[in-house]
């Protein structure tokens, strides 16, 4: 199955993960992958990948001592896009196999 939006989607992901920002691109990429982030971010990133609706202000407030709002936004966005991409690709793969 050909995804007509793959090029645009991949360009957005690349810009978010590799583009300029307040957080390190390596951290954004790790957040998108769901692994390899600093230990203090792992709980948040895992929650976004598994149960994003459960992320609370308390999850973010605990990290604001070390990370700015902009850094947290970029990390959360990277994790959300990575999780969404993984689910989309799994769905497209399932449709292909069906």
Give me some keywords for this one.
5 helices, mainly alpha, 0% strand, 98 residues
Question: How many structural domains?
Answer: 1
* Gyration radius, in Å: 14 Å
Shape: globular
How far do the termini sit from each other?
11 Å
Low-confidence stretches: none
How would you spell out the order of helices and strands?
HHHHH
The helix-and-strand class reads mainly alpha
Indicate the percent of residues in helices.
over 70%
Arithmetic mean of pLDDT: 95
Please state roughly what percent of the residues sit in beta strands, choosing from under 5%, 5-15%, 15-25%, 25-35%, 35-45% or over 45%. Answer: under 5%
How many distinct beta strands?
A: 0
Largest sheet: none
Task: Please report the number of helical segments.
Answer: 5
Describe this structure in words.
With 98 residues, the protein is an all-alpha fold. It has one domain (6-97). The protein has helices at 6-18, 25-33, 39-51, 57-61, 69-97. It is globular and about 45 Å long.
In short:
The protein has 98 residues and is mostly helical. The protein has five helices and no strands. The protein starts with 5 loop residues before the first helix and ends with a helix.
Helix and strand layout, with pairings?
Blueprint: H1 6-18, H2 25-33, H3 39-51, H4 57-61, H5 69-97
Helix pairs in contact: 2-5, 3-5
């Amino acid at each position: 199955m050909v995804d007509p939006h793959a090029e645009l989607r991949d360009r957005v992901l690349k810009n978010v993960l590799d583009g300029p920002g307040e957080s390190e691109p390596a951290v954004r990429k790790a957040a998108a992958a769901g692994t390899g982030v600093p230990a203090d971010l792992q709980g948040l990133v895992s929650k976004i990948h598994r149960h994003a609706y459960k992320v609370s202000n308390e999850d973010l407030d605990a990290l604001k001592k070390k990370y700015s709002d902009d850094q947290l936004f970029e990390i959360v966005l990277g994790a959300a896009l990575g999780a969404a991409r993984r689910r989309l690709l799994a769905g497209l793969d399932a449709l292909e196999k069906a």
